Amino acid sequence: MKKNVYELKYRYHTGTVAWILHRLSGLALVLYLVLHIWVISNLNSPEGFNKVMAFLNQPLFKLLELGLWGVIIYHAINGLRIILVDFFGGSKSQKKIFWGVVVVGIIVFIAGAVPFIGNIK
Amino acid sequence: MKITFKIQKFSPENDSKPSYKEYTVEAQPNSTILDCLNDIRWHYDETLSFRRSCGHAICGSCAMNINGKNGLACQTHVQDLKPGTITVRPLPSFPVIKDLVVDLDKFYEKFNKIKPYLINDGPVPEKERLQSPEQQKLIEESTTCILCAACTSSCPSFWADDEYLGPSALLKAYRYIFDTRDTAAEERLSVVNDKHGVFRCHTIFNCNEACPKEINITNHIAKLKTALVTTKL
Question: Which of B204, B219, B229 faces A16 most closely, judged by CB atoms?
Fold first, then answer.
């Protein structure tokens, strides 16, 4: 008998959204780490280093770095939420904890992004 | 008031894939979805198949997907849903036998895997095996499960892994592992500590949202995780 597949039409709620964002941010971090290691493994000479750094100084990469900062923050703080849920009885207030993650995340993001943007020139 | 239902129909003999059929019925705001389905079967389409039995949210037969969320048809009232067409589908991720009836064989198989019965080889007491109120409290919530399968069918980990024990079986595992009268906790913990066991739970909370008995299933699974991690250390 065939499986009844239409799971993607299932109704989303706080927990689902938190999980999907956690998965996507995790995948983004893996992709970033692979690219990062690939780039630094190609830095063999001073000229090469300068070339790569000049390339990475484009505004697009600055924007991506800000995005990376956001992704790291979400994945790290929501990771703490998952630890609270799994080992410290946090499941009863998981929705509140999620909104806590969002608020703390935004604060930390801004705290890091302001000096970062200030340094761009 | 007139309510339109969009119901997933599938008959394995005649259809290659499921289709939707619409029915408009007369309903009261406090009518349950089960009332409406009965009305449709009795007056509009006698071929419509669904399971139901007690009609009072205790047998667990009529679990289905209503407006994208799993729940019991007999416990869901028309007035509690978003106004407009009500979409009814069978429980996700189980094979469909006909219309809203799904094959739960594998669901029960997993349930049996965790040995859902009291195991105690100690001497049999003259009367019953006593528990203190505190000991009972530990398992009270988990004993209210009615095995409707709404939770397991709502779980994305189960959608991705057919062999995953699922929230329902794990909840039942908790119920016996933390029962002070039972002596087979270790045996059950080893069943639960499997590739398709408790660590497949990614705390998505779909099971909690779906449970008609409002059991905090994720919390019970978390307790199992904690038990496994602490005994391993």
Answer: B204
